[in-house]
Design goal:
The radius of gyration is 28 Å and the shape is elongated. The strands form 3 sheets. The chain has an 8-stranded mixed beta sheet with strand order 1-5-6-11-10-9-7-8, with helices on both faces. It has a 5-stranded mixed beta sheet with strand order 13-12-14-15-16, with helices on both faces. Strands 2-4-3 form a 3-stranded antiparallel beta sheet. The chain has 2 domains: 16-169 and 230-320, Bira Bifunctional Protein, Domain 2 (BirA Bifunctional Protein, domain 2); 328-416, 3-Layer(aba) Sandwich (Rossmann fold), CATH 3.40.50. The chain is of the alpha+beta class and 433 residues long. Strand 9 (265-273) and strand 10 form a beta hairpin. It is built from 16 helices and 16 strands. Helix 1 (16-35) runs antiparallel to helix 5 (138-154) and helix 5 packs parallel to helix 10 (231-246). It binds zinc ion (2 copies). One zinc ion is lined by residues 168-169, 171-172, 229-230, 232-233.
Length: 433
């Protein structure tokens, strides 16, 4: 092989071992989200670019540097960099707001950002997230944050930290931004290049700069919530924290957590993991009480979060916990036995028994080695002799026990072994072997 194509820079293949775990995460997240009353919404991966410009803010880095744009005639289409804007667009377009009820969604799917590839940052990645639209209750914030925690715990991830802060309402944000510009304006030459660029666009980003000298200046400001929050926002945040304490969610208050997107208001949170290095967030979320109105709806409070699934894969130590059925490996030796094995294999699978074979292997020794490699729990051997006697040789790989079973009794015997509670497929083969 002299030349092979490679995946586009910043993208990656999710190979079977990892894909199995990714789907395990997805299934668990679905299960738990539905337990909390969230229902799936599937929106397109392409949206009009203006939707993102309007929702994320035209001065944000995502809009400025990271959008994949497709121009077709007069249409300017973007590959979605995140899902919230599309979910709210769908909510409004389909009148899901008409009954004024709290609407709760979850989603799972690929997102795209044309950024400089680095560890934990891909150009195509997956988000799993939830959005709850139609309530400003701080108890909904508690539900959302606890849901995020429960999902992480149930997919076997530990060692994460929930950092939480509040940005206040739009009025608070405006006043605070002005105040920050006044305070920091005089010191701007002491900040890093990124911060100097962000000063006009989004002065809040200076608060969470990772650069150590920027950090020191910010720490010196000794920012307190009471400096910039109105009474209602203070009360909202206190109720959120009390609710989290009440159900035992561990969190850390972080006065410098701001998030990069313009639409956030009031509660914001980020879940970090120490194994991730500089880009240490596995997920993040917060309130966006003005986004629905911004996108043309009535004023409607909302909150959500998203996990970066590839980041979850990086920090997960529980890949081996994906439940898998025990494998029955069928070895057929000789032309007649091979022909007969087709029906036996089909019947095993129809009865919900995970079964496989090796079409090319002609020696018993080679086939047994392969069964071992695949981690087969049981092996069935069908040779010409067995075929004549209408039996198969059954071997338990763990105990080494080996015996003959009548062909017509194979399924019943394997079912009796309770191979991980085999559940027959809905469509069954007519007539058992
Ligand atoms: Zn406020
Ligand atoms: Zn900086």
């Amino acid at each position: 092989m002299s030349f092979v194509f490679r995946a586009v820079r910043g993208t990656k293949d999710i190979l079977p071992d990892e894909a199995e775990y990714l789907r395990h995460i997805e299934v668990k997240a679905r299960e738990i989200s539905s337990l909390y009353g969230y229902r799936e919404v599937i929106t397109p991966v392409i949206e009009n670019r203006d939707l993102f410009v309007r929702s994320l803010g035209k001065d944000t880095e995502v809009i400025g540097k990271q959008m994949f744009i497709i121009e077709r005639g007069d249409d300017i289409i973007a590959l979605r960099p995140e899902a919230t804007a599309g979910v709210i667009r769908a909510y409004l377009e389909n009148n899901l707001n008409s009954r004024n009820l709290l609407a709760k969604f979850y989603y799972f799917g690929p997102m795209f950002r044309a950024e400089r590839p680095q560890k934990g940052r891909l150009r195509q990645f997956h988000h799993l997230g939830v959005e709850a639209v139609g309530s400003s209750s701080p108890l909904l914030d508690v539900e959302i944050i606890s849901l995020a925690e429960v999902i992480l715990k149930n997919i076997g991830i530990s060692g994460f930290k929930i950092k939480i802060n509040t940005l206040g309402c739009v009025e608070d944000k405006k006043a605070f931004a002005e105040k920050l510009r006044v305070i920091l304006g005089g010191k701007i030459s002491d900040f890093c290049q990124d911060c100097r660029e962000r000063f006009d666009r989004n002065v809040f980003r200076l608060l969470d700069c990772k650069n150590s000298s920027c950090k020191n200046i910010i720490l010196g400001l000794n920012i307190k919530r009471t400096d910039y929050l109105c009474g209602e926002c203070l009360e909202h945040f206190d109720t959120v924290l009390a609710g989290l304490k009440n159900i035992g969610v561990n969190y850390e208050e972080s006065a410098h957590l701001v998030r990069g997107l313009d639409y956030y208001t009031r509660t914001v949170f980020e879940i970090t993991h120490s194994e991730l290095g500089a880009q240490d967030a596995v997920g993040a979320g917060g309130r966006y009480d003005n986004l629905v109105e911004e996108l043309g709806g009535e004023p409607t409070a909302a909150i959500g979060f998203a996990f970066g699934v590839e980041r979850l894969l990086l920090v997960s130590s529980a890949k081996c916990q994906v439940p898998s059925k025990d494998l029955v490996f069928l070895i057929a030796l000789g032309k007649g036995a091979e022909a007969a094995s087709v029906k036996l294999l089909y019947s095993l699978r129809q009865n919900g028994i995970k079964a496989d074979t090796l079409y090319e292997e002609k020696s018993l020794k080679g086939a047994m080695r392969r069964a071992n490699d695949l981690g087969a729990k049981y092996v069935l051997i069908l040779g010409e002799n067995e075929l004549k006697k209408n039996v198969v040789v059954f071997k338990d790989m763990a105990s080494g026990e080996q015996r003959e079973i009548k062909t017509e009794e194979v399924i019943a015997e394997l079912m009796a072994l309770a191979i991980l509670k085999a559940k027959p497929l809905p469509y069954r083969l007519k007539g058992q072997i």
